[in-house]
Amino acid sequence: MAKCDQCGNDYDKAFQITQAGRTWTFDSFECAIHKLAPSCAHCKMRIIGHGLEDADGRMFCCDHCAEESGVTTLRDRV
């Protein structure tokens, strides 16, 4: 079995995610999200979708949070 890097649960169906050359082991997608997903710079919610990024690299979960933080332009990552 493998131990989850987020909660410590030892689980026989654990999986691994590799990001930027580093590998983590998780027992659930919930733990993976809590460990790896960025947080909104305004409301601190975990960003599960694409989110929005301003020119300074701050991430936001939605346009409302970006506007509430005074962001007037967003960075196009296409």
Describe this structure in words.
This protein has 78 residues and is of the alpha+beta class. It has two domains: 1-36, no CATH class; 37-78, no CATH class. It is built from two helices and six strands; from the N terminus they run E-E-E-E-H-E-E-H. A two-stranded antiparallel ribbon has the order 1-2. It has a two-stranded antiparallel sheet with strand order 3-4. Strands 5-6 form a two-stranded antiparallel sheet.
Q: State the low-pLDDT regions, or none.
A: none
Q: Treating each run of at least 4 consecutive H or I residues as one helix, how many helices? A: 2
Please state how the strands of the largest beta sheet are arranged side by side. 1-2
Task: Give the SSE string.
Answer: EEEEHEEH
Shape: elongated
Radius of gyration: 15 Å
Percent helix, as a range, is: 10-25%
* Count of the domains: 2
Q: Note the main sheet.
A: 2 strands, antiparallel
Number of DSSP strand runs: 6
Give the N-terminus to C-terminus distance in angstroms.
40 Å
Percentage of residues in DSSP E strands? 15-25%
Decide which structural class fits the backbone: alpha+beta
What is the residue-averaged pLDDT?
93
